[in-house]
């Protein structure tokens, strides 16, 4: 997993931040004012319904029957139905660089683990990323997240606990858990800007 963390000196203008890869998620926090957090999920999330009886698999390529746009599926999450029953519905998670063209409300064809026409219907509200900026408020208990030290039933795997209020029923929830390795250096991240020379 590629991880970069660091600081940016805001300028009031758009800034390109070079980190060496296209992130799946970016979290920005205004640490000066402490009043906002912006979370942007940059994966391409495509809503689908009417999944046929041929099951799509990770790595398959979807091609819009009308638009000709393509997307390589990284992960499939079912919300309801099943492939066997011919009524699968849910989300295709695609890498940013794996999408070409603009997918519209249409049927899609499959190539990859199999080849099938009109294998699934893409819903008109295709989600090309999700972004939210919100005021910061302290949360505890079921409304928040907690560090998880693990227990014997999962071999003491470390991680975090998602409170029940955050675990909203029947919703697609993305998470990113980051931690710099010990001694990991923060390098200049901002293209065309002498951020590293700033004195605070």
Report how far the terminal alpha carbons are from each other: 31 Å
Question: Helical region count?
Answer: 0
> In what order do the strands lie side by side in the largest sheet?
3-6-5-4-7-8
Secondary-structure content class: mainly beta
Q: Strand count, sense and closure of the main sheet? A: 6 strands, antiparallel, barrel
Which overall shape is indicated by the principal axes computed on the Cα atoms? globular
What does this structure look like?
This protein is mainly beta and 200 residues long. The chain has a domain at 44-122. It has strands at residues 25-29, 36-41, 44-51, 61-64, 70-80, 88-100, 106-111, 116-122, 130-135, 145-148, 159-162. The strands form 3 sheets. It has a 6-stranded antiparallel barrel. A 3-stranded antiparallel β-sheet has the order 1-2-9, with no helix packed on it. Residues 193-200 have low confidence and may be disordered.
Task: Outline the fold blueprint.
Layout lengths: L24 E5 L6 E6 L2 E8 L9 E4 L5 E11 L7 E13 L5 E6 L4 E7 L7 E6 L9 E4 L10 E4 L38
Antiparallel strand pairs: 1-2, 2-9, 3-6, 3-8, 4-5, 4-7, 5-6, 7-8, 10-11
Which key terms come to mind for this protein?
single chain, 200 residues, mainly beta, 6-stranded antiparallel beta barrel, 3-stranded antiparallel beta sheet, 11 strands, disordered C terminus
Q: What's the gist of this structure?
A:
The protein has 200 residues and is mainly β. The protein has a domain at 44-122.
């Amino acid at each position: 997993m590629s991880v970069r963390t660091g600081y940016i000196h805001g300028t009031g203008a758009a800034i390109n931040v070079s980190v060496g890869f296209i992130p799946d998620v970016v979290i920005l926090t205004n640490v000066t004012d402490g009043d906002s957090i912006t979370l942007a999920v940059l994966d391409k999330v495509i809503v689908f319904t009417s999944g046929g009886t041929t099951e799509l698999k990770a790595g398959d390529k979807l091609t819009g029957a009308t638009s000709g746009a393509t997307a390589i599926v990284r992960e499939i999450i079912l919300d309801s139905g099943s492939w066997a029953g011919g009524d699968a519905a849910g989300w295709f998670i695609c890498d940013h660089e794996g999408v070409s063209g603009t997918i519209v409300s249409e049927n899609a064809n499959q190539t990859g683990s199999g080849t099938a026409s009109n294998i699934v219907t893409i819903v008109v509200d295709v989600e090309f990323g999700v972004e939210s900026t919100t005021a910061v408020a302290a949360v505890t208990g079921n409304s928040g997240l907690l560090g998880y030290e693990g227990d014997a039933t999962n071999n003491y795997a470390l991680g975090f606990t998602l409170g029940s209020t955050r675990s909203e029923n029947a919703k697609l929830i993305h998470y990113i858990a980051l931690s710099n390795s010990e001694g990991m250096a923060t390098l200049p991240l901002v293209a065309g800007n002498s951020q590293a020379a700033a004195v605070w």
